[in-house]
Each structure stands twice: as structure tokens, then as C-alpha cells.
Design a protein that fits this description.
The chain is built from 21 helices and 12 strands. By secondary structure, the protein is α/β, with parallel strands linked by helices.
Length: 588
């Protein structure tokens, strides 16, 4: 239990440390908060004095001009409440701008930068909806708590102290009625609110799952419609939503039950003050009605900060649950970040030496892989699904790091090179096309942002997509995106190929690059690729073996091992595993 409490306290301390850049603004907000409190406690005192003057005038003990005596007091009272409103407005304006601009915005930028430094494995294995939930909902919750530190907790405690002092100065007997309930109320708030943290953590977790389901449903909307899976998707959403609803209901119940309890205790105190105050006034133990009215007003004010503190304890558990999820990302182990440079333009020699790799430690995929690719060679990688073809691309680009062995680029261990340096040597065209929302010209120039319009058009012409681009309403300035339907799958693939052509890297990776084009386009595209591949080291992954019959070297993978290698003719002559794959596609 002590260890758990220590962990929770550590989370709160770290949350406060995350707010260090805005501490100076929080201090200014605290000073404004003091102004609010000063006006709050001055109001009832001034009002009590005015009531005493009116009571004195009523019983005949007041002599003089009543209006002349009261008007200055009313003016001061009005100024106090105007000051209260002004200080409150400035405090809220300052906190809203500072917390949102410098805390939550800064924290989201840090998470985004952190994700860039995390292994690709994390993004592959974590639902996008869950990541977005942490960056949006969880960070907003943390910002709200930092906001409430000053606005609720600090002002609440200061208000309690100030009101207690003023009540004791007015009449200590009536003040004790209110103050006697304060320790019990605060203790009860802390105990009950602490029970809600686990429910809030569950609520955020289920919220991430819900976002993941929604994101998945809309991303695959066409597939869902095609297979009539609307009802299944709805049931899946309803199940996750029900879990989120249950966790949220439990958390909100545990955190909000405190307020009614405190309101009830303050109502009892309010009744007691009225009864005891009336008896003291009748018995002559209290000097004036103004004292009773002042104490009653303070008692009413006293309930507000207690409820604020109670709500603050509940929000504290809310914030701790959110912070735990955010800090879990920020504390993740990052990829090693070597800073080595190649020192020269890559020639394109690639060598795998006894490479071992597995996505899961208990499930080896590649063991003892040896590949020697010379500059300018066109290397095709074929094999059944799950043989490790795409994994080789992941290892070449260092999307994943190998478990053992070495991968050499021009004799230099890739593990010693920075990822930026290594990836700047490769051009890629993947099976899954990706276009961002922007013009066609901007998408083609993604790998070379400073490319001229002439260079973009030349690359598209070589990729055989210039013609269809010119038929679009705005030509190269047509806005496209991966989620838009104004381009076919084959046209998107052609644009990504044009992108690789324009980047003009020494090494080229083609992962099923022609899978989404028709046969006629494939023939034209293959001719363009032949020109592109000339004097470049190329790795071509293909299931359609017709696209790699002219490759300099074909590596046949099965279960993470190279079982055969050679040219197309040599492998057919062996009548081995490659021959079986080829004949399964084409009758011989």
C-alpha cells in the first residue's frame, strides 16, 4: 500500500515538474487569486456594517443623514465586487491561455517527437486510436488539473483560511460551528476521491480502445459495407462503448459523491448558525444583527471552497490516471541513435552476414541469413507468404533492428550509421500506396521538396502517369489524398513510383510495386523501371514472377532462409522450390 501511494505521489510530483515552464505565470495567477479572495472576504464584512447602520436607524439609535452614511459604503461594496469580477476574469484568461498554449500544446509536441524516436514496432503494435487518445484526451486532462491547482485547490485552501480568520474575528462561537466540520470534510473528500483513480485509468484505457474501433471502422468503411459487416461492427463498438461507459460511470460516481456530502454538512452548519445566532442575539450575547448576517454570508461562502477542494481531489485522480498513460509513452525506451555518416555517396553494395531476426523472441523468423549484393544488381526476393520477404526490407531500412549478425552498406555496418543517413540512400515503392492531402505535384516531390515543375513532369512521364494527370481538372495542381476516391488504386501506385523516380536514390526497394496496375500498364511500367534500375542496386519483392524474370539474381526464401538463388533460367532448370512456385502461377 505504501509503495502504491509512493508511486501515486511520484506521478503528481512529475506532473507538477512538467509544468515548470509556466510556473512564473502560475505565480501571477496565484496573486490574482489572492485579489479574488480579498474581495470575497471583504464583501460580507462591508455588507454586515451597512446592515448594522440600517438596524441602528430602525431602532432609533442612529442620528444623522442615513443616505450620506450609507452611500460611501455602497460605493466601496460595489468597487469590491467589481474588483472580484475583474480579478476572476484576468485569472481565468491567464490560466486558459498559458495552460493551453505552453503546457498542453508543448506536451503534445513532445509526445509527437517521442513517437518519432520510438521503434517502429511500437507504432505497428499500438492502435492509432489509442495513441491519439493519449495525445488529445489524456493531455487535456493533465492541462485541466494544472489549471485547477491554482484555480481550485490553491484558491480553495486560501479562501478557507481567509474566511475562517474573518469568522473568528466576528464571533468565535458561531465560527466554530462551521470550522468543526472542516477537517472531517477534507478527510472524507480525500478518502472517497482516492477510490476513483483506478476507475479513471480504466476509463482512459477503454477510451483508447473505443477510438481505435472507431478509427478502424471508418478507415475500412468500404470493406465493412462490401461484406455486410455493419451489424458486427456495431456490436463490436457497442461492447467497447459499454465498457467505457461503465468505467466512466464508476469514476464519476466516486468523485462526485463527495460534493453532496459536503453540501449536506454545510447545510447543517448553516441551520445551526441561524438557531444559535438567533438565541445569542435575543439573549444579548451578540452585539448586532450585522454579526449574524456576516457569519451567515461567510458560512455560505465557506461551502464553495470545500466543494472546490472535494472536486479537486476527484480531478486529481482523473489527472493521475491520464498522466500515467502519457508518461508511459514519454518513458519508453528509444531506439539507439548512432550518428555515423557514410562519408561518401553510396555505391550500392549490400551484404547480410549471419543475420538473425524475430518479431517475437519466442518465434524466430530469420536465422543465419547471408546475402551478397553487388552494385547495380537487380535482386528479386520471392517466396511464399510469411517467408520473410518484406522483413528484409524492414531490416534494410532499419525499421527493425537485427538480433544478431551485421548488414553492411559499402562495407560499413549499418548499425553505426544514423537512420537519416541510411534511409537517405534508399528510394521505396511499397504495395500499400500512401498519398497525403495535397496536390499531385507536392505528392510526387515528397522525396525531393526542392524539385522543379519540369523535374516532376519528367518523372511522371517516365512513370507513365503524366497522361492521366493532365486529364484531371487541375492537372498537377489537383488536390488528392489517401482517403479520396478521385484516383484509382493503380493511379496512386503510379504516383508513388514517380515519387521514387524523382528522388533518384542509389538504392531502390520495390515491394509488390506493380500489384495494383493492369497488365498493359505493367508492361509500360516495367520498361520505365528498367531504365530507373540501371546502375542502381535494386531489391524487388514480387509474387507475380513475370515481373522479375530478367533479374540479375533471384533469392528464394522459405521460413526465413534462402533455399535457392540464381537467375530465372538457372532456377527453373533446377526444378526445385522456385520451379514449384513458378509452375503454380504459369503452366509450362
Amino acid at each position: 500500500m505504501k509503495k502504491q501511494k509512493k508511486t501515486k505521489d511520484k506521478i503528481i510530483r512529475r506532473l507538477l515538474m512538467e509544468a515548470r515552464p509556466i510556473w512564473k505565470w502560475l505565480i501571477v495567477a496565484a496573486l490574482l487569486c489572492c485579489g479574488v479572495i480579498a474581495c470575497s472576504v471583504a464583501g460580507p464584512k462591508l455588507l454586515g456594517a451597512l446592515i448594522d447602520q440600517l438596524y441602528a436607524y430602525w431602532d432609533g439609535s442612529f442620528t444623522g443623514n442615513l443616505m450620506a452614511a450609507i452611500l460611501p459604503g455602497l460605493g466601496v461594496l460595489l468597487a469590491v465586487y467589481v474588483g472580484y469580477s475583474l480579478f476572476s476574469y484576468l485569472k481565468m484568461l491567464l490560466l486558459n491561455k498559458v495552460v493551453s498554449r505552453y503546457f498542453t500544446c508543448g506536451l503534445r509536441i513532445r509526445i509527437s517527437d517521442k513517437i518519432k524516436r520510438l521503434p517502429v514496432r511500437y507504432v505497428d503494435q499500438t492502435p492509432v486510436g489509442d495513441i491519439l487518445s493519449r495525445m488529445t484526451d489524456d493531455v487535456s486532462t493533465m492541462g485541466n488539473y494544472v489549471h485547477q491547482i491554482v484555480d481550485t485547490l490553491m484558491s480553495g485552501f486560501l479562501m478557507i483560511i481567509a474566511i475562517a480568520a474573518m469568522m473568528l474575528a466576528e464571533d468565535w462561537r458561531l465560527a466554530l460551528i462551521v470550522l468543526a466540520l472542516t477537517p472531517a470534510s477534507i478527510w472524507l473528500s480525500s478518502v472517497i476521491s482516492s477510490k476513483s483513480e483506478k476507475h479513471y485509468y480504466q476509463m482512459f484505457t477503454e477510451g483508447g480502445n473505443l477510438n481505435a474501433v472507431v478509427e478502424e471502422s471508418f478507415t475500412n468503411f468500404a470493406t465493412t459495407k462490401a461484406y455486410n459487416l455493419e451489424e458486427y461492427t456495431q456490436e463490436k463498438h457497442a461492447k467497447v462503448n459499454k465498457a467505457r461507459k461503465k468505467a466512466e460511470a464508476n469514476a464519476n460516481f466516486m468523485s462526485s459523491i463527495v460534493r453532496p456530502i459536503i453540501a449536506f454538512s454545510n447545510a447543517l452548519a448553516y441551520i445551526a448558525i441561524c438557531l444559535l445566532g438567533g438565541w445569542l442575539l435575543v439573549s444579548g450575547s451578540v452585539s448586532s444583527v450585522g454579526v449574524i448576517v456576516t457569519i451567515l454570508l461567510y458560512a455560505k461562502q465557506f461551502a464553495a471552497p470545500l466543494e472546490q477542494i472535494a472536486g479537486g481531489f476527484g480531478d486529481l485522480q482523473h489527472a493521475k490516471a491520464a498522466a500515467k498513460r502519457v508518461f508511459r509513452i514519454l518513458d519508453m525506451e528509444e531506439e539507439p541513435a548512432p550518428s555515423g555518416k557514410l562519408g561518401h555517396e553510396a555505391e550500392g553494395n549490400i551484404r547480410f552476414e549471419d543475420v538473425d531476426f524475430s518479431y517475437e523472441k519466442d518465434s524466430p523468423l530469420i536465422e543465419g541469413l547471408n546475402i551478397d549484393v553487388k552494385r547495380g544488381q537487380n535482386v528479386a526476393i520471392v517466396g511464399p507468404t510469411g517467408a520473410g520477404k518484406t522483413t528484409i526490407v524492414n531490416l534494410l531500412m532499419r525499421f527493425y533492428d537485427i538480433d544478431a549478425g551485421r548488414i553492411l552498406l559499402d562495407g560499413v555496418d549499418c548499425a553505426t550509421l544514423s537512420r537519416d543517413e541510411l534511409r537517405s540512400q534508399f528510394g521505396m515503392v511499397l504495395q500499400d500506396t500512401w498519398l497525403f492531402r495535397g496536390t499531385i505535384a507536392e505528392n510526387v516531390a515528397y522525396g525531393k521538396p526542392d524539385a522543379t515543375r519540369e523535374e516532376i513532369i519528367a518523372a511522371c512521364d517516365r512513370a507513365y502517369c503524366d497522361h492521366f494527370i493532365r486529364t484531371l481538372p487541375d492537372g498537377y495542381d489537383t488536390v488528392v489524398g489517401d482517403d479520396l476516391s478521385n484516383l484509382s488504386g493503380g493511379q496512386k501506385q503510379l504516383l508513388t513510383i514517380a515519387r521514387a523516380m524523382l528522388a533518384n536514390r542509389r538504392l531502390l526497394i520495390l515491394d509488390e510495386a506493380t500489384s495494383n496496375v493492369d497488365t498493359r500498364t505493367e508492361v509500360l511500367l516495367q520498361k520505365a523501371m528498367d531504365n530507373l534500375m540501371r546502375e542502381r542496386t535494386c531489391f524487388v519483392i514480387a509474387h507475380r514472377l513475370s515481373t522479375i524474370v530478367d533479374s540479375d539474381l533471384i533469392l528464394v526464401l522459405n521460413h526465413g532462409r534462402i533455399v535457392e538463388q540464381g537467375t530465372h533460367k538457372e532456377l527453373l532448370a533446377k526444378r526445385g522450390f522456385y520451379y514449384q512456385i513458378y509452375t503454380s502461377q504459369y503452366a509450362i
